[in-house]
Amino acid sequence: MERRCMFISSFVLIVQLVQAQDPTGFINVDCGLPHRESPYNSLPTGLAYTSDADLVKSGKTSRIAKEFEPDYTKPILKLRYFPDGLRNCYNLNVTRDTKYLIKATFVYGNYDGLNVDPNFDLYLGPNLWTTMSSNDTIEEIIHVTQTDSLQVCLVKTGISIPFINVLELRPLKKGMYVTQSGSLKYEFRRYLSNSDRNIRYPDDIYDRKWYPMFVANSWTQVTTNLNVNSSNLYELPKGVMSTGVTPLNPNATLNITWTIEPSTTKFYSYMHFAELQTLRANDTREFNITMNGKISYGPYSPKPLKTQTIFDITPEQCDGGACLLQLLKTSKSTLPPLLNAIEAFTVIDFPQMETNEDDVAGIKNVQDIYGLNRISWQGDPCVPKQFLWDGLNCNNSDISTPPIITSLDLSTSGLTGIITQAIQNLTHLEKLDLSNNNLTGEIPGFLADIKSLLAIDLSGNNLTGSVPRSLLQKKGMKLNVEGNPHLLCTAGSCVNKRKDGHKKKSIIVPVVASIASVAVIIGAFVMFLVLRKKKASKFEGPQPSYIQASDGRSSEPAIMTENKRFSYSEVMTMTNNFQRILGKGGFGIVYYGFVNDTKQVAVKILSHSSSQGYKQFKAEVELLLRVHHKNLVNLVGYCDEGENMALIYEYMSNGDLKEHMSGTRNRFILNWGTRLKIVSESGQGLEYLHNGCKPPMVHRDVKTTNILLNEHFEAKLADFGLSRSFPIEGETHVSTVVAGTPGYLDPEYYRTNWLTEKSDVYSFGIVLLEIITNQPVIDQSREKPHIAEWVGLMLTKGDIISIMDPTLNGDYDSGSVWKAVELAMSCLNPSSARRPTMSQVVIGLNECLAAENSRGDASRDMDSKSSIEVSLTFGTEVSPRAR
C-alpha cells in the first residue's frame, strides 16, 4: 500500500536504454583566440576549440597573468574583455527548439594588472541569467532555444569591465532535465566518492562536469570493478556510477544538505542509483527518500549494476532555503541506504520574449548590407528597453507577444547604394527615416506594401527615377523626398516647373487644401489661448496647483505639484505591467521601469495593507519635490490616483549598502576606501537636510538599507517617508511620536519623544559601526546584543582587532580606521548635545578617506594603540529596542 501511495506522488522513475552518441553539435569557443590559432584540440578532453572573432563584433583580447597559467587548461588562458558600450553580445548559430547545456567560464587571472574584483551581469537573450562577481567560476544553465540564434550578452553595471574566457554549448536529449516551466540554473553536481578526480568529457558524453564529494567521518565508500549499466536516459559516466556511499553507521540515515538563495527559489534534484554490492540471499537494501522530513519516494531498492534516476516532475522548495535530503532505511532492510550521485538545479524563468523573429532577421540584414557598425547594435534589438538599438523604436506593450520594430531612423549614417529590399521584412514598420545619406537608385515600390508604414523621409540623397504611384496614392502617407536633385516626380503634388520648363522636386505632403485651412485656424486659436494665458498670469501671479485626494483623505492637505505627476495607467506602462520586482518594504513593492522609454526608474507602489499611509507618502513627495542634492535620491515623479499611490525614483542599479555589506547581493567585498566614500557621500546628503534646507529636515530613518548606490557606486540617501521639519525659526526640537527602525533609534529620542537633527547623527553612527565591523546591528548571541554596546565593551577590554571586519584582511590604513571608530562612538554619545553635527562628521570622514587614499608602504599596526577614548553609559533603560 505504501508503494502504491508513493506512485501517486509527483516523483517518477525513468529508466531508458539508449546508445551513446558522439559530440555532434558541440560548440566550443575560446574567447580571445586569434583566427590564426583556430581551431586546436584541447587536452585532456580532445575537443576542438575555435576563435570567437566571428561571433562578436566588439571587445579586446588579453591573457591571464603568467603566475595563474599553470592552474588552467589552454581554453581558459585567453579572454575577451569589453571596455566599450554597456551591452556586448555573442551571437551563436544553434538548432531551434533544442535543449542545450550552456557553460560560460570566467577566470579573471588579473589579466589587466589592476586586481579589481569583477562585477557585471550575464544575459541570455533579453533576460538576466546571473550576476558575475567571482574571480574564477563556471556559470551553467540548461535552456531550450526558441530560434536559430542564441545571444549571450555581457552587461556592464559598474566600474568593473566584463570579460569571458570560454563559451560552450552541449545539445541534450529532449527528455532529459524536463521542467514545468523555465530553464535550469546549475546549483551543484556531485558523485559520491573519496576520489580527488573531476569527471567530464569524454567520460561524460554531454560534458557535464562531476565533482567528488565524501564525508569521511559519516560515510563509507562503496565501489565495484564490475561493469555498471549506465545507459539510461541521463547516460551517466561509468566512473560516476561505479562508486557510491552508505552511512558509516549501518542504522543511520544518509544525509545531504544544501542552501538555496533566495529561500523562495524552486529547484529540481536528480538522484542516480545503482546497486554496487552483491547481496546475499537474506540481504535487503530498501529505503525511503525524504526532503525536509516529508517522504517523497519509496520504499526503493537500487537495481544491481543498473543505473536508475529518481527525480520530481514538479519543482520543490525548502523552508527558509535550507534543504535536507535524507535516505532512511526501512524496517525490513538489512543494509543501509546507498547513493551514487546527485545533481540540483534552481528554476530560472525568462519572462521577456525575444523580438519578432522576422523583424530581427530584417534589421540584421539591413545592418549587414549597409555595414553598420554601432556599438549598441548587439543582442536583441528591442529588449530590454535600456539596451534598445540606437535609431529604433519598438512596441512591447503586450508581454504575451514578441516585441516588434515600429520605427527605423538611419538618417545621417553614411549609407550608400540602393534602398535595400531587406527593409520590406520589417513588416510592422510605421516610420522610416533614411534622410541625409548618399543613397542612389530608384525609390522601391515595396515601401507602399508595408501596410503600417505611413511616414517616410528620403530627403537629402541622390535618388533617381520616379516616385512610385502606389506611394503617392497611399492614404495617410507622409513622404519627404526633398534634396534629391535627380528624382523625377510625375504626380501633380510632387511636381513644380522651373522657369526653364524643367521639373522641380518638392516635398510631397498629401494634405488637401481644406485640411490645411482647418489646421491654420486651429493653430491661430491655440496661439490665442496661449497668449491670453500668459497675459492673465502677468496680472494674477503664479497659482499653485494641488492634488485633490479622492479616497476620503480630505483631512490631509493636498500635495503641491511640480509637473511630476503620473497617472496610474502611465505607471503600469512604465513598469511593463509591474513585470520586474526590485524589492519589498514597509511601503510596498518596488518595481523596475522606464520613463519615456529611456530613463530607468524604480517605482514604489503603496500597498493597501501597508503600515505606512498617505501621510508618509505625502511627506516624501513634498520633501523630494523641493529638495535637490547630488546625494539625495531624485524623485522623478509620483502617482496619486484614488487608492493607487506610487513614488517614481531614479534607478539605483547597485542596490543598497546593506546588501553589499551582508553579501546578499554578490560576493564582492567592499574595500575600506569604498566604504568610507559611500558613508561620506550619504553623510553629505544628510548634512544638506540639516543645514541646507529651510526649514531644516530630520530624516528619522537613517540606516544601511536607505543608502542606495548607482552604477558608479555613488551613494544617495533614500526613503523620506518619516522625515520631519522644524517649522518655527529658532526651534531646537519637535515633540513627536517615536518612529524609526529598532537598533538605529536614538535612545534619547526614544525616552523623551524630543526629535532633533542629532537623532539622525546617532543613527548615522550605527551605520559607521556597520561598515567598520560588518556585524548585525542587533545580535542576541553576542555578550552585548546591540552593536554600540558590543563595540564599547570590546574597546574597554582593549580588544581592538575583534571589532574590525575580518573580510578586509587588514587591508586599510589603521589611522583612518581609528579616526572612523572615534567618529562613530562620538555620534553615539548618550547625550545628544555632546554628539557632533553632521557637518563635523562629514569633515571627519573626509579626513579618514584622505588618510586611506594616501596610504603608502609604511603601514601602521592597529595593535600599537591599546586604548581609545569612549563614552558609553548604556543601561537597559536607554538601550534601543523594538517597540
Automatic annotation (TrEMBL):
The chain crosses the membrane at residues 507-531. Residues 576-849 form the Protein kinase domain. Keywords: ATP-binding, Kinase, Leucine-rich repeat, Membrane, Nucleotide-binding, Phosphoprotein, Receptor, Repeat, Serine/threonine-protein kinase, Signal, Transferase, Transmembrane, Transmembrane helix. Residues 1-20 form the signal peptide. Pfam families: LRR_8, Malectin_like, Pkinase. Its main location: membrane. PROSITE patterns: LRR, PROTEIN_KINASE_ATP, PROTEIN_KINASE_DOM, PROTEIN_KINASE_ST. InterPro entries: Kinase-like_dom_sf, Leu-rich_rpt, LRR_dom_sf, Malectin-like_Carb-bd_dom, Prot_kinase_dom, Protein_kinase_ATP_BS, Ser/Thr_kinase_AS. GO terms for molecular function: ATP binding; protein serine/threonine kinase activity. It is found in: Membrane. It comes from the Eukaryota. The keyword Nucleotide-binding applies. It is a single-pass membrane protein. GO terms for cellular component: membrane. ATP binds at K604. Gene3D superfamilies: Phosphorylase Kinase, domain 1, Ribonuclease Inhibitor, Transferase(Phosphotransferase) domain 1. This is Protein kinase domain-containing protein. The lineage of its organism: Eukaryota, Viridiplantae, Streptophyta, Embryophyta, Tracheophyta.
